[in-house]
Amino acid sequence: MGFSLDGTDMRLLRELKENARENIASLSKKLGIPRTTVHYRIKKLVDEGIIEKFTVKPNYKKLDLGTTAFILARYDPESGLNQREVAQRIAALGGVYEVHIIAGEWDLLIKVRAPSSEEVGRIVVDRLREVRGIGQTVTMVSFVTVKEEL
Questions:
Q1: Rounded to an integer, what distance in angstroms lies between the CA atom of residue 109 and that of residue 27?
Q2: Does residue 141 contact residue 117 with C-beta atoms inside 8 Å?
Q3: Portions of the chain given CATH number 1.10.10.10
Q4: Does residue 149 surpass a pLDDT of 90?
Q5: Which of 16, 36, 97, 104 is 20 to 30 A away from residue 121, measured at CA?
Q6: Which ranges in the chain are annotated with CATH 3.30.70.920?
Q7: Predicted confidence band at 122 (pLDDT cuts at 50, 70, 90)?
Q8: What is the pLDDT of residue 56?
Q9: CATH entry, 67-141, from 3.40.50.10300, 3.40.50.300, 2.40.50.140, 3.30.70.920
Q10: Interval 23-78: pLDDT, tens
C-alpha cells in the first residue's frame, strides 16, 4: 500500500461508515479540518482503494426480509468443481447475502435473508442443496442481530 493512513483518515472513515451521505461541510466541522482537505482525503481514500464504494444499509425487516440465517456447508470434491466455483454458484442464488470460504470442520459459511424461517428452509432445501459441489449443511437461524457492519 503506497498510502499511509493517519488519525484524521481513520476518523474520516469512521464518520463515512456511520453516514456515507454526510456532506463535506459537516465532516469538515466535525473533524476540524478545511473542506478542501476533507474532499482531497476522501478522493485519495477512493483512489487508493481503501474506500471501495459508498452504500446504504437497508432495514431488512421493513423489506420483509427479517429472518437471517447462517449456513455451514461442506464442499464435495467429487463434484468436479473446485471450491471457488461452488462458492460463486451459491453467491448467485436469490436470498444469499454472503458466502465465505472458511477453515475448519466446515468449508463454507453462507448468510441468507428471507421473510420467514420457512423461506430459509426453502432456500436451503430447494436451492442450496441442489448446487453441485454442496455436501452436508447445517442451518442456524439468528434470533436477533446485536451488531452488523457494512
A1: 37
A2: yes
A3: 7-47
A4: no
A5: 104
A6: 67-141
A7: very high
A8: 87
A9: 3.30.70.920
A10: 999 999 999 999 999 999 999 999 999 999 998 889 999 999 999 999 999 999 99
In whole angstroms, give the CA distance from residue 97 to residue 68. Answer: 10
Query: Is the distance from CB of 124 to CB of 95 less than 8 angstroms?
Result: no
Q: Which of 72, 66, 74 is nearest to 118 (CA)?
A: 66
pLDDT at position 4, please? 85
Residue with cell 449443511: 137
| Separation of alpha carbons 106 and 74, rounded Å | 5
CATH 1.10.10.10 fits 7-47, yes or no: yes
The pTM (predicted TM-score) of the whole model is: 0.84
Q: Is the pLDDT of residue 2 over 70?
A: no
